[in-house]
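Human: We require from you a protein record containing the residue sequence and its fold in C-alpha cell form, and nothing else.

Assistant:
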Amino acid sequence: MVVFGLLPHEQKMSVVHFLIKRVHDNDGNDDDIEPIKSKERLTFHVGYRRFTACPIYSQHSNANKHKVIFAAHCVCFVILCCICSTAAMETDVLLLQVVGCGTTFQLI
C-alpha cells in the first residue's frame, strides 16, 4: 500500500523548468539520434505524476539569457519549459515519446 499527500501549493499549475539530458544507445554512437522538435507532445513521469505536455526547449548556460532551441539534436543538457503541476522538491523526470499509432512509447 502506498500513501502520499500533497502540500497546499502542489495542486496549482505553474510554468515548470526541467533540466534534461537525452540518453543514447548502448553502442555510444550519438549520430543516430533523431532530433526532437520543440512543441512536440511528450509524456512526462515526474515523481508519481504522469502527464502529457508540449514543452519548449532552451539552451542550458550560465548566463541570464537562454536561446530557444527548435529541436534537441544531440546528447546534451537542455531546459524544457511547460505548464504543469508544481513539485515541492527535486524529482527525477522520465520522458517518453509516442511512436506509431499511439500504443508504444520510446524513451527519450
